[in-house]
Design a protein that fits this description.
This protein is an alpha+beta fold. The chain has one domain: OB fold (Dihydrolipoamide Acetyltransferase, E2P) (Beta Barrel), CATH 2.40.50. Helix content is 21%, strand content 32%. Helix 1 packs across helix 4. It is globular. 28% of the residues are buried.
């Protein structure tokens, strides 16, 4: 699964414009939302009762606050800190046409680590900027200084990029 995620990351960063509205794309992404992800959990709820959510797959949308590169670490990673935007998943979304309406929760944050597998992925990750909107699916298994980490990360993409467009 790790290589599937990494392969997809390389593909989408090659043509990425990460400022558009969130539009789930077919196949895997629809499957995660419809069948697997717990769409009710927020970072705040995870922080309040972390032991209850260790095995919960979440799908969160956020705005990049910062990105740090840990080049000396093994494995090398890009850590993306995002402000959770919240999404009203119960709004009757049609996967083919519309975007999800966002809610505006209090400041909540989540973080992901993107593995850097070589110079090309590093250059792609450097395209992520503060203010870019992203979607991430993962397991909220770490909390550090009030920030929920999605580790392991299952899926990540900047919004506005849809493969094949």
């Amino acid at each position: 699964m790790r290589y599937v995620v990494l392969s997809f990351l390389v593909l989408f960063f090659a043509a990425c414009s990460s400022t558009g509205a969130y539009r789930p794309i077919g196949g895997f992404e629809n499957d995660v939302f419809e069948k697997r992800a717990d769409k009710s959990l927020t970072p705040r709820e995870v922080r309040l009762k972390p032991e209850q959510h260790l095995d919960s797959l979440v799908a969160w949308v956020g705005e990049v606050e910062k990105i740090d590169f840990e080049i000396a670490a093994q494995p090398q990673v890009a850590r993306v800190l995002a402000r959770y935007n919240g999404v009203d998943w119960s709004s009757g979304y049609d996967f083919g046409n519309d975007s999800f309406p966002e809610t505006r929760p209090a400041k909540e944050f989540f973080q992901v680590a993107l593995e850097i597998t070589g110079p090309d992925t590093l250059e792609h990750y450097k395209k992520i900027q503060r203010g870019d909107r992203v979607v991430a699916y993962g397991y909220p298994r770490e909390i550090f200084h009030g920030i929920v980490g999605l580790y392991p990360l299952v899926y990540f993409r900047p919004l506005g990029f849809v493969p094949g467009e």
